[in-house]
UniProtKB/TrEMBL annotation:
<feature type="compositionally biased region" description="Low complexity">
    <location>
        <begin position="409"/>
        <end position="432"/>
    </location>
</feature>
<dbReference type="Pfam" id="PF02277">
    <property type="entry name" value="DBI_PRT"/>
</dbReference>
<feature type="region of interest" description="Disordered">
    <location>
        <begin position="374"/>
        <end position="432"/>
    </location>
</feature>
<keyword id="KW-0169">Cobalamin biosynthesis</keyword>
<comment type="similarity">
    <text>Belongs to the CobT family.</text>
</comment>
<dbReference type="InterPro" id="IPR017846">
    <property type="entry name" value="Nict_dMeBzImd_PRibTrfase_bact"/>
</dbReference>
<dbReference type="InterPro" id="IPR036087">
    <property type="entry name" value="Nict_dMeBzImd_PRibTrfase_sf"/>
</dbReference>
<comment type="function">
    <text>Catalyzes the synthesis of alpha-ribazole-5'-phosphate from nicotinate mononucleotide (NAMN) and 5,6-dimethylbenzimidazole (DMB).</text>
</comment>
<dbReference type="InterPro" id="IPR003200">
    <property type="entry name" value="Nict_dMeBzImd_PRibTrfase"/>
</dbReference>
<keyword id="KW-0328">Glycosyltransferase</keyword>
<comment type="pathway">
    <text>Nucleoside biosynthesis; alpha-ribazole biosynthesis; alpha-ribazole from 5,6-dimethylbenzimidazole: step 1/2.</text>
</comment>
<dbReference type="InterPro" id="IPR023195">
    <property type="entry name" value="Nict_dMeBzImd_PRibTrfase_N"/>
</dbReference>
<protein>
    <recommendedName>
        <fullName>Nicotinate-nucleotide--dimethylbenzimidazole phosphoribosyltransferase</fullName>
        <ecNumber>2.4.2.21</ecNumber>
    </recommendedName>
</protein>
<feature type="active site" description="Proton acceptor">
    <location>
        <position position="334"/>
    </location>
</feature>
<keyword id="KW-0808">Transferase</keyword>
């Protein structure tokens, strides 16, 4: 079978049993229920991704920076010369970019993938030479890529994910480098979400208002042209999102970039291997729309690292129902926003491995406290009402075998390694 179809077919839903085990475990840990907010949901989802509770820590982690050039650069949508794409690749390989500093900070490995930089790059350690073309064509004048180039670039991403997972990486992060790629991102996001170009086109690396106005018109012109070449398109903006979801690769070829294609493949590959993939900013958001249109189940394997200053990013994340972990008004790309989120993801997982349960720590369970304090959260009150005032705590202390097992299991996390207790939990939830 062809690699893209094979990868899409390999993507399975989240593992419900592992998520149930994680949910139940969260409720037994020595903290008020729900007190870790979205990190609890994150830990539960990661259990579903891995199919085990607790899920593996997201380490070692690897960020893949997909680099490519854009023909639409000729339309004056960015003040930066196209050569900066290749020059930044050298900087990544020398360890001198922001992505390298942040990767060192969180212990992630950086891999740079040349999927379409205009011009030759010398071989170098850390560089995967996977050039599909010397950049895309100008999307205002014709399709950015041929169907074959788009397919091949998606495969490059799938293969990169496969190889990083095979090398032992347990969390993948997306990165990008491509001068003018926020223009292609805006076009993809407009096409897939149906939003208007002026809603989703931002200031990229930093442009003046006149350049921004031109950029919006460039996105509009590319979409208008593309509609005439997409089978089944009636030429109206209202049909964009329907056509994009029915023919994502065709839309990708019309207005996307080679790095968008590769990142879409990277997302699919991570999902097929049941490894979480942390999305960086607007370029990753646009690429993930392509991946999710190809395989809706891939969405559950995506974590939104951060909220970029580019307006299209929020539109892309909202349409996939993903909430960003951090919001620092970054507008850089390279994988920087994804890397900054990694410690939060690790924290969400570590809680499930290391935090003691009420039984094991000898802390009185919540129900007694809830009844006394009638805490502010509606959920807590509901729970105590449902469980009754006698509560799990008393029951637990009256059942030494369960308390004992709890203590032993908790210690076993450190001694026997992460998976031990989890599998027990999944097989025989404690609270049953
Ligand atoms: C020195 C430099 C380093 C970067 N690192 C990431 N980007 C980011 O900016 C580019 C997109 O912005 P636009 O669409 O406005 O050209 C991409 O290469 C992206 O990764 C950079 C841009 C520059 C100039
Ligand atoms: O959101 C991003 O990742 C981004 C924003 C501006 C420029 N480059 C990347």
């Amino acid at each position: 079978m062809e690699l893209i179809a094979e990868t899409v077919a390999a993507i399975r839903p989240l593992d419900e049993a592992a998520m149930r085990a994680a949910r139940e475990r969260h409720d037994r840990l020595t903290k008020p229920r729900g007190s870790l907010g979205e990190l609890e949901e994150l830990g539960i989802r990661l259990a579903g991704v891995a199919g085990v509770c607790p899920p593996p820590l997201p380490a070692p982690a690897a960020v893949a920076v997909f680099a490519a050039d854009h023909g639409v650069h000729a339309q004056g949508v960015t003040p930066w010369p196209q050569e900066v794409t290749g020059q930044m690749v050298h900087n990544f390989l020398a360890g001198g970019a922001v992505v390298n500093a942040f990767a060192r900070q969180v212990g992630a490995e950086v891999t740079v993938v040349d999927v379409g930089v205009n011009g030759d790059l010398p071989e170098a350690p850390g560089l995967l030479a996977r050039k599909v073309a010397n950049g895309t064509a100008d999307m205002t004048r014709g399709p950015a890529m041929t169907a074959e180039q788009a397919r091949r670039a998606v495969e490059v991403g799938i293969e990169a994910a496969r190889d990083l997972v095979a090398a032992g990486h347990r969390c993948l992060l997306t990165g990008d480098m491509g001068i003018a790629n926020t223009t292609a991102s805006a076009a993809l996001i407009a096409a897939f979400t149906g939003r208007a170009p002026d809603d989703v086109t931002g200031y990229g690396t930093g442009i003046d208002d006149a350049t921004h106005a031109r950029k919006v018109e460039v996105v509009r012109a590319a979409l208008t042209r593309a509609r005439t070449e997409l089978p089944g398109h009636d030429g109206t903006a209202g049909a964009d999102a329907r056509v994009a979801s029915a023919a994502p690769l065709a839309v990708l070829a019309q207005v996307g970039g080679l790095e968008h294609a590769a990142i879409a493949g990277f997302v699919l590959g991570a999902a097929a291997h049941r490894v979480p993939v942390v999305l960086d900013g607007v370029i990753a958001g646009a690429a993930a729309l392509v991946a999710v249109a190809l395989a809706p189940g891939a969405r559950d394997f995506c974590l939104a690292g951060h909220h970029s200053a580019e307006p299209g990013h929020a539109a892309a994340l909202a349409s996939m129902g993903l909430r960003p972990l951090v919001d620092l008004r970054l507008r850089l790309g390279e994988g920087t926003g994804a890397l900054l989120a990694l410690p939060l993801i690790a924290g969400a997982v570590r809680v499930l491995h290391e935090v003691a349960t009420f039984d094991s720590a000898g802390v009185a369970d919540k129900d007694a406290a809830d009844v006394a304090a009638a805490g502010p959260a509606g959920g807590a009150r509901e729970d105590s009402a449902a469980a009754g005032p006698a509560g799990g705590a008393q029951e637990d202390s009256a059942a030494p075998d369960r308390a004992g097992r709890g203590r032993e299991a908790s210690a076993g996390v450190a001694a026997a390694g992460p998976a031990g207790e989890a599998e027990n939990d999944a097989a025989a939830p404690d609270g049953a």
